[in-house]
Amino acid sequence: MRLPKLKRILTDPDEFLSNGQLKSLSIELLELIPMEGIEGSGLDSEKIMEVVLRAAVDTTSVNGVTTNAEDTPNRKTVMHWLDTLEKEPMLDAVNDILALMALTVLDRDRSRTICFDFMDNPFHGHPEDETEFRRMQARDGTTKCHRYCTAFVIAQGKPLTLAMEPVDGDDSKADAVERVLARVETYPFETEQILMDRAAFAGELIGVLRKTAPPVFPVKTGKDSLREKLSVNVSKMTEETICEGKEHEQTYPLAVNVTYHNGDRGKSGLKQTGYAAYGLEDRTPQQVAQVYNHRSRIEKSYEKFREARALTTTPSTTIRLFYVGVGFLLEQLWLVVQWAVLARPRRGGRALPTEFAFGDAFLHGIEQVLDDELGWKEKHRTNAEGLPPGYEHGLG
Predict the structure, then answer these.
(1) Contact between 282 and 231 (Cβ < 8 Å)
(2) What is the pTM of this model?
(3) Nearest to 317, CA basis, from 108, 171, 151
């Protein structure tokens, strides 16, 4: 997999980086995703990817782009092309591109802490198959969602996306994490530690994680013996068992970290948080909490990703997965270009540019170029009549 434009800019940048170059780099990434297209069509994939890119950078839909631009295929044509995407080859390509970009800014000789997470995208509409969506707490007027499992590494102060996998309706979390781990294990560095949220608190999933590296995650407090160990006034290290007497029984080191709410969310008094602390048995509970808190940076990554996710009402899970992949690819491109090309070298690490914001500079810059190339309509047809007679009195 080759990215000649990206390689040139990363290794021999000009004095300035233009919006046109950002758009070209984005299209270069997207054109590596295999799409068969419509047989006999005179179009090429770049025309389709330009529409998708314009929808992503403005968080709008393909219909919103084709309706407002003069030099694009119509919506039906674009969607017919996107319907030729095949899930597995498309997903493999997205993950390969993510890996290629991540490795441009990662020291391959260092071991890494990997962060895992499950991300829910609300789903509105009627799916073709009821098993294709998952349930979540009500958000955006729905309890339906498509779920994705993601892996990140914190490097150069930023969360780089290493891999992503969809979590289908009949998938277990352990199955999804196992597939993501299989992708991460192809990277040329050792996984030193795994950080995950409370979703990891399941015997089968803990077993999957431990095969790769020691996991650290907060525990759930439903068990009486666990609640008792958490109801203390001072921090301590102990141990606890999950799935006792069952197939996936696990005894884990438990770090109980005691702090104060200090008015957080209107609460006061002691706050006891328990962590499964595999590999950190020789640390204090406070140190375990500090290690786990590194994971909080991935929430910023999700905020950025959502700024570059095209909207759709299609029931096609493949197209929805493709749009998610596009969002992650654009965010990763921004991170890599920001650190490699625009950040100023200095002692103690590069100084990242504050003016190269993801939304205002990167996405908006690409949007401006595409508006010119796609013939964005700047005039809108009126009804040539205005207010009905008798309604203009409010104007004086």
Answers:
(1) no
(2) 0.90
(3) 171
- Alpha carbon distance 83, 294 (integer Å): 39
Pairing relation of β-strands 112-122 and 191-195? parallel
| CB-CB contact of 112 with 195 (8 Å) | no
Q: Can you list the positions of beta strands (E) in 8-157?
A: 112-122, 134-139, 142-155
Domain total of the chain: 1
pLDDT in tens, 55-111: 999 999 999 999 999 999 999 999 999 999 999 999 999 999 999 999 998 888 888
Q: Give, as one character, the DSSP assignment of residue 237.
A: E
What is the rounded CA–CA span in Å between residue 141 and residue 122?
A: 9
Q: State both tokens at 192.
A: 């030193």
Q: Are strands 191-195 and 236-242 parallel, antiparallel or unpaired?
A: unpaired
C-alpha closest to that of 285 among 224, 228, 216: 216
Does some domain include residue 381?
no
Bridge partners of residue 351, in order along the sequence: 344
Q: Are 53 and 303 in contact (CB under 8 A)?
A: no
Q: Which residues of 186-221 are buried (b: 16+ CB within 10 A; e: fewer)?
A: ebebebebbbbeebbbbbbbbebbeebbbbbbbbeb
Maximal CA-CA distance, the chain: 82
Expressed as residue numbers, the domain containing 198 is: 4-371
* Residues 169-185 pLDDT 10s: 778 899 999 999 999 99
> Dihedrals φ, ψ of 113, to 5°?
-95, 125
Q: Is residue 163 part of a domain?
A: yes
| 40 assigned to some structural domain | yes
Strand partners, 116: 151
